[in-house]
Amino acid sequence: MVQATKKIWMDGKFVDWDDAQVHVLSHTLHYGLGAFEGIRCYDTIRGPAIFRLAEHVERLLQSAHIAGMKVPYTQQELEQAIVDTIKINDVQECYIRPLVYLGYGEMGINNAHNPVNVSIAVWPWGAYLGEDALQNGIRVRVSSFTRHHVNVMMTKAKIVGNYANSQLAKMEAIHSGYDEAIMLDPQGNVAEGSGENIFIVRRGELKTPPLTAILEGITRNSIVDVARHMGLTVHESILSRDELYIADEAFFTGTAAELTPIREVDNRIIGSGRPGPMTAKLQEAFFRVVQGKDDSFQEWLTYI
Ligand code: PMP
């Protein structure tokens, strides 16, 4: 169960957690067009801080724009609403879930007359794939489900309906005894996890798939910046399935998953079967950044 907090922001008002309800005929619930974000607030030495708030709100607005939904709030209003939601709930560390959805009105595919509603919920959420996953890495399988083609779903947008594909892949992975799925794009190259971007390390250099069929992950961008700041070489280029198998190291990145090492792909051990040295170094650097311990990246933190 989600760990309930006190209030949820709904269209400009704070509502008690248990009263944050929508009508069963809400349009998004039936047809899947909506936009959402996943953001984390970390407890730092200077109090709670939201990681890359502006970038997440910008992506939310861009997702809605791609989906053709007019959000009745500005970037600044949404950033403030997120800060206010954390304050009113009095949490130090939390996950933040803003959602833009089409509400109750008409039924049918034409959504022109449905209201665009916005909600923001926050709750404590620990390691998405578990503490053990962060420390020891996870086992993943290449999914039998293909990631969206860019002209089937809009992959730059974090659209609610995109996650039907993610759920098919995730549940297939879980039911066959793995922790997470890796999806290939329609051309057969490695795309991303069900809710994470992927990196490998090979011959001392980092490689991550280009921004075609994948979500432009904010953690992905952050890791690229942090790695380059550390003097590492990062390539954004096509990654084939068999290159994954012979990677020296591999890891997932995402707001929920943070930086989770991958120790096995399709029953093939990656590297030593333990999080590799570059993965461990980047994971440590990432946690230092989000916890406000690295002065080079303070501009990524919004202190509450
Ligand atoms: N890919 C997908 C499909 C995702 O859902 C996520 C999580 N938002 C990511 C990648 C990682 O994105 P971010 O680092 O911005 O959370």
TrEMBL record:
One of its GO terms (molecular function) is L-isoleucine-2-oxoglutarate transaminase activity. GO terms for biological process: isoleucine biosynthetic process; L-leucine biosynthetic process; L-valine biosynthetic process. It comes from the Bacteria. It holds the Pfam family Aminotran_4. Its EC number is 2.6.1.42. GO terms for cellular component: cytosol. Its cofactor is pyridoxal 5'-phosphate. It is an enzyme of class 2 (transferase). It catalyses: L-valine + 2-oxoglutarate = 3-methyl-2-oxobutanoate + L-glutamate; L-isoleucine + 2-oxoglutarate = (S)-3-methyl-2-oxopentanoate + L-glutamate; L-leucine + 2-oxoglutarate = 4-methyl-2-oxopentanoate + L-glutamate. Keywords: Amino-acid biosynthesis, Aminotransferase, Branched-chain amino acid biosynthesis, Pyridoxal phosphate, Transferase. Belongs to the class-IV pyridoxal-phosphate-dependent aminotransferase family. This is Branched-chain-amino-acid aminotransferase. It comes from Entotheonella factor. The lineage of its organism: Bacteria, Pseudomonadati, Nitrospinota/Tectimicrobiota group, Candidatus Tectimicrobiota, Candidatus Entotheonellia. The gene is ilvE.
